[in-house]
Amino acid sequence: MDSRGNVSDIVSKTIEVQDTTAPALVMPSDLSFDLLANEATKSVKLPVVEAIDLVDPAAAVTCKLGDAPVTATMPFGPGVHKISCTAQDATGNVSDTHEYSITVKDVTAPTLTMPDTIVHNLAANTATFAFTVLGPTTVNDAVDASPTVACTPAKDSQASLGVGTHTINCTAKDASGNIGKGSYNVTVKDVTAPTLSLNNLTVNGGNAPTMAVTYPTANVNATDAVDSTPTIECSPSSGAMFPIGTTYVSCTAQDDAGNHSTPSTFTVTVLDKVAPTVNVPSNITTTATGASGAAVKYIVTATDVISGDVTARVQCNPPSGSTFAVTSGVHTVTCTATDEAGNKSAPASFTVEVNYAFNGFFQPVDMGGIFNKAKAGSAIPVKFTLGGDQGLEVLAGTPIIVGVACPSGTANVDLVEETVVASNSGLKWDGTQYVYVWKTDSRWAGQCLQLSVLLKDGSIAKTALFQLTK
Fold it and tell me: Residue ranges of the HYR domain (predicted)?
């Protein structure tokens, strides 16, 4: 219609509008889940994926796991699962493919069932137990049917275990790297007592009734397969005082595990090796009582540190009460003593000297520096005693005659009042005394002489002075 109101004819034309825009997807965030213990999969309710389309508000959304369509609730095992989605509107416009992920983690370690504690008693004479290492009895994992198992020491290896408690540690590792741990104990016990070795001991005693005795290892020893130094206890103990004779000693041995050996005994014999001490008298000097000499008695004693008084076991040679002859020397008496153990003392000795009981010359002969005056050629009786009749073998040879200076005056001169008739010099016993008849020589007239009588006992010469006249 123009300005004047003119209206044209009606003309019609068709316009077609096409929907060429694909829907837009609203994707959820990625999801992550931890498996609980004993869960092999996680049941997941999938989130809703929305499609926005200005033309088709009910655009269809399709989601897949791989090539398979998903359901509202699905089980997922460990791992990362990609869910891909597309949307298509009624016009057939298809959106781009979009993804979100569902991550399921296995965070539970395998469970190990371990053997019970193993107790092993060592056999005699063995120090270690050859143990074949056992692994876990069972290993359970909800996800991994065969976790990797490792033990220290290694499973099925031979472990040499000594006395004590040993811990065997094992691990199980699943495919997700979770590690479970377990352990068990192997207790090795020493139940064998030490072996005690005892040998009888003999020692020499000292200068006392008792002595300290220490046990050498050669006599008292103990061995044990496990304990290298078992403790040995003895009664009496080593170092104790032991008397002379044989003493029984009882011993036991104990190892570190507390095992005691059966008590056993050995003997300690302390020998008496000390000889007695002999006590002899001082040297004895006595006088002859007869022609054979003198019977002399003496007392010799002996003592012993063990046997005590062993005087009764003294032996002397010659024995007490023996007759000792008159000699120019001495007699040696040697004594020994033997104790009850048979120990013989060292010899002890003393001397016995037997002399004549000479008391000087009797009248008519004077001694003491007096010159006895007699006629040359006369026989002068020189009288003396020796304590009785000692026989006629009392002189040590013929008396000795030597010349001496005559006195200047008569003061020391005494006349011999008695002479006898004899042709030779000689000794006799007249029943009460000895008489040595000295036959002088007439040629000795005018001389002064000394007569020396030597006795068989070795004593000094018995002398008298004489002045012989015509």
Answer: 183-272
Q: Radius of gyration over alpha carbons of the chain, in Å?
A: 70
Give tens-digit pLDDT for 137-146: 999 999 999 9
- How high is the pLDDT of residue 14? 79
**Distance between CA atoms of 383 and 436, rounded to whole angstroms?**
6
With beta carbons less than 8 A apart as the criterion, state whether 304 and 208 touch: no
d(CA 56, CA 91): 8
Domain count, the chain: 5
Q: What is the rounded distance in angstroms from the CA atom of residue 366 to the CA atom of residue 360? A: 9
Instruction: Give the Cα separation of 216 and 163 in Å (integer).
Output: 30
- Judge residue 115's burial from the number of C-beta atoms within 10 Å of its C-beta, 0-12 exposed, 13-18 middle, 19 or more buried: middle
pTM over 0.70: no
Question: pLDDT band at 281, cuts 50/70/90?
Answer: very high
Q: Give the up-direction half-sphere exposure of residue 344: CA atoms within 13 A in the CB hemisphere.
A: 5
| Domain annotation covers residue 14 | no
Q: Which of 422, 419, 436 is nearest to 383 (CA)?
A: 436
Structural domain including 83 reads 24-105
Maximum CA pair distance of the chain? 249
Q: How far is the CA of 180 from the CAs of 111, 170, 171, in angstroms?
A: 6, 8, 5
450 token code pair: 């000394």
